[in-house]
């Protein structure tokens, strides 16, 4: 299990934009399982939506991308680099994420060619699918 400071040793994101709280397990270049504890104090809930707080889908995708970045940037040849979005494909949202949820983020790297790759991403809450799709990344 990696905590926030150990995650920060792998990926460059920092609060308030570090979107994962812990990593359960990861295999460099292959996969990562991480978690985001969705707190009612998150700044985006003030406006999305004031009387019905829902985590924006784009932030769920960013959380997944950061989990994928742990898998890619933990590879020895990628230490100190950054992984940026190259594309989002087949992303579907199945359930709302609200304060108090523990978002499980699973990313499996399914293709890599040079600095470009694709991760199969799945977000769940209590075993129910919240979002799933493919994330294309570039290591820079």
Blueprint of the fold:
Layout: H1 4-8, E1 22-27, E2 31-37, H2 57-73, E3 83-93, E4 102-113, E5 116-125, E6 128-139
Antiparallel strand pairs: 1-2, 2-4, 3-6, 4-5, 5-6
Number of domains: 1
Would you identify the CATH H-level superfamily? Hotdog Thioesterase
Number of helices: 2
- Write down the CATH topology: Thiol Ester Dehydrase, Chain A
Main β-sheet description: 6 strands, antiparallel
CATH level-1 class: Alpha Beta
- Record field, number of beta strands: 6
- DSSP strand (E) fraction? 35-45%
Strands of the largest sheet, in order across it? 1-2-4-5-6-3
Overall geometry comes to: globular
Report, as a whole number of angstroms, the end-to-end distance. Answer: 26 Å
Low-confidence spans: none
Output the radius of gyration: 14 Å
Series of secondary-structure elements, N-terminal to C-terminal: HEEHEEEE
CATH architectural type? Roll
What does this protein structure show overall?
The chain is α+β, with helices and mostly antiparallel strands and 140 residues long. It has a single domain, classed as Thiol Ester Dehydrase, Chain A, CATH 3.10.129. It has 2 helices and 6 strands, in the order H-E-E-H-E-E-E-E. Strands 1-2-4-5-6-3 form a 6-stranded antiparallel β-sheet, with helices on one face. A hairpin with a 3-residue loop joins strand 1 and strand 2. It is globular. The model has no long low-confidence stretch (mean pLDDT 97).
């Amino acid at each position: 299990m990696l905590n926030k400071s150990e995650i920060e040793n792998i990926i460059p994101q920092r609060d308030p934009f570090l979107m994962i709280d812990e990593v359960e397990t990861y295999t460099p270049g292959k996969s990562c399982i991480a978690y985001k504890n969705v707190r009612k104090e998150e700044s985006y809930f003030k406006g999305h939506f004031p009387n019905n707080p829902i985590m924006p889908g784009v932030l769920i995708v960013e959380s997944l991308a950061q989990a994928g970045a742990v898998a890619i940037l933990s590879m020895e040849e990628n230490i100190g680099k950054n992984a940026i979005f190259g594309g989002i494909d087949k992303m579907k949202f199945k359930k709302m994420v609200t304060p108090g949820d523990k978002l499980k983020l699973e990313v499996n790297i399914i293709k890599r060619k040079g600095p470009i790759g694709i991760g199969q991403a799945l977000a769940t809450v209590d075993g129910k699918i919240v979002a799933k799709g493919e994330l294309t990344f570039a290591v820079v």
